[in-house]
Amino acid sequence: MQDADIERATKTPSATPGQPEIATPRPLEAPGSLPRKPHPWPLILGLSGLLGAVWAIVIVSRYPNILPG
């Protein structure tokens, strides 16, 4: 059994005068102030546009008379 009258120390060992205190974690911020994650759509559109440009260059180099002029 545990003795209920045991007095516990109020200071933690890191709070002694000779040692620097450990930084406490930041308080939780409101849900609306969290940083937003970037959406994948700009990356998807950019890569598909790049693929389309490469495709067009390959077609024009394969069939040089396809473009008028």
UniProtKB/TrEMBL annotation:
Keywords linked to the UniProt accession: Membrane, Transmembrane, Transmembrane helix
Domain of life: Bacteria
Bias (Basic and acidic residues) ranges: 1-10
Keyword Membrane: yes
TM segment ranges: 41-60
Region described as Disordered: 1-35
Name this polypeptide is given: Uncharacterized protein
